[in-house]
Amino acid sequence: MGVAGRWIAHRTDALGRPRRFPAASLVLLVVPAAVLAVPVWHHEQLQRRLGQVASRLVGRDVEVHCQTLGEQFVHAGSELGWVGFDADGNPDHSTVITREPCGDLQSYLDHHGVLPTSDEVIAVHVLSHESRHLAGSQDEARTECEAVQRDAGAARLLGASAADAHRLARLYWAVDYQNMPESYRSPDCTSGGSWDEHLPDAPWTAESRQ
Questions:
Q1: Under a CB-based contact definition with an 8 Å cutoff, are residues 154 and 120 in contact?
Q2: Which residue, among 101, 103, 113, 93, has the nearest Cα to 42 in the 3D structure?
Q3: Is the pTM value of this prediction over 0.85?
């Protein structure tokens, strides 16, 4: 815009001769800018889609921020996502999900939830888990239990079929949940347990359908 504006303001040189439109200079500037803009656009589209899914899971408008490469470089923690809470225990309106699971969520979307990798299964659960934090849950074990009962719903909202969504929820429950640290697990999180919300998408309910 600066190059074009300069030409508009000075269409003739010092001798009054018309100056050519700087087409070559504009191409050299516009093409790299467009190439660099594509990943930024994809990043924003992914965040918007994940925010829509999280909002449905939470029941209010929330946002999902996918960690950028620069943010990943300075991030020293091991968590895959997080939500801040204020002094009164109220959650932020947005969550941050780290770069790897965000990439896996994009892959899951691209493949419509068919035959997800183990990393994609975990990434869907991360979105489900952080959505429970956005809903106000702070205790990690309780949050994890609420999330496993909503993993299938999250998968469907991301484009998976009902069968594939239930399969993902059962897989996370049978493999990943059982290997989580003790602070993330509870004997109350089981069929008929005190944390069983009796949701139709709970992994133990989905198992009984098979």
A1: no
A2: 103
A3: no
